[in-house]
Design brief:
Blueprint lengths: L1 H17 L9 E5 L2 E2 L3 E2 L5 H13 L3 E5 L6 H4 L15 E6 L6 E2 L4 E10 L10 H4 L4 H4 L4 E4 L3 H8 L6 E4 L10 H11 L4 E5 H10 L6 E5 L9 E8 L4 H13 L1 H10 L24
Parallel strand pairs: 1-4, 1-5, 8-9, 8-10
Antiparallel strand pairs: 2-3, 5-12, 6-12, 7-10, 7-11, 7-12
Length: 291
């Protein structure tokens, strides 16, 4: 056992020594998806793009991107890949990763969000203030609703628990088309009337509500904490393992700029939650109650 611990400690030291910190005087090189609103796109229109711009300005660095679709192979082709001409890492920072993501060394969380309902108001859906209110609808009304959900998401468990899964339209988390994004698929089907309600990761739900705020009939309702189903998740930033100085620098920036980050997230109508997973107000969405 002692020899095993020694080997593991030696391996960690070698890994740390082999992974130099991101250059302190170089550009802020961010790994990002070129088409994944509301988080990021190549035109800089996502909340991750805005956070990256704020960080680059504060750190006095030029912002440079390496774009790659954020699906299988993303980290391997960005954060862990080197430019064949220069031998430098292609990029040094992923703006959004789950707090416990296993492929990167993760900073302190900067966002705590939750899943939410998003729908266009109809006579049957008027007056809903929480997702739980949906279950109080008359059985003949509730039984006719069609729910758009994504596979391997907490929405599956929620519908199963309330015996509504047979009314679900299930989308795959990733299609074969990198230009197809989850929010776009759901938006089309809500507009076409193919589904009545979608259950989405909060940033996507909030973004759809924001995009259609002028219409006055789109509503986003975040889920409350649930003892059996986890709806809320913390999001951090990801760097390479062994780059402690760089990770510490990013951590310090997040800690010192959380209010600035929260303002960016609120501008995208992202439903934020407190430490216990309870939604906090981000301001009313036109046509619906404040979350």
């Amino acid at each position: 056992m002692r020899n095993l611990r020694l080997l593991l400690a030696t391996a960690l030291m070698l890994l740390t020594a082999a992974a130099p910190a991101a250059p302190a005087d170089g550009p802020l090189r961010v790994c990002a998806d070129p088409n994944s609103l509301p988080s990021s796109n190549r035109h800089g229109e996502g909340y991750e793009n805005e956070i990256a711009r704020a960080m680059a300005q504060d750190l006095g660095r030029k912002l440079v991107y390496t774009f790659f679709p954020q699906r299988m192979g993303f980290v391997r082709n960005t954060l862990r890949a080197k430019d064949p001409d220069t031998g430098q890492w292609k990029c040094d920072l992923i703006i959004g990763v789950p707090k416990d993501y296993e492929l990167t060394a993760n900073t302190r969380p900067y966002m705590h969000s939750t899943y939410a309902l998003v729908f266009r108001q109809r006579d049957a859906l008027r007056g809903l203030a929480t997702p739980q209110d949906l279950l109080k609808l008359p059985p003949e009304t509730l039984g006719k609703l069609r729910f758009g959900i994504f596979s391997r998401a907490p929405s599956v468990d929620w519908l199963l628990r309330h015996q509504l899964f047979e009314q679900a339209v299930v989308y795959q988390q990733q299609s074969g088309d990198p230009d197809e994004v989850p929010g776009g698929v759901v938006e089309r089907d809500l507009l076409a009337g193919k589904i009545d309600i979608a259950i989405l990761w909060g940033p996507i739900a909030g973004y759809l509500a924001r995009q259609h705020a002028d219409a006055g009939d789109w509503v986003m309702l975040p889920f409350q904490p649930d003892a059996q189903i986890k709806f809320d998740y913390r999001i951090a930033m990801g760097v390479r393992f062994g780059e402690k100085e760089w990770k510490d620098e990013v951590d310090r920036w997040i800690a010192g700029n959380q209010e600035k980050i929260d303002a960016i997230l609120a501008s995208y109508r992202i439903p934020l939650v407190d430490e216990r997973g309870h939604p906090v107000a981000v301001g009313p969405v036109a046509g619906g109650p404040a979350p």
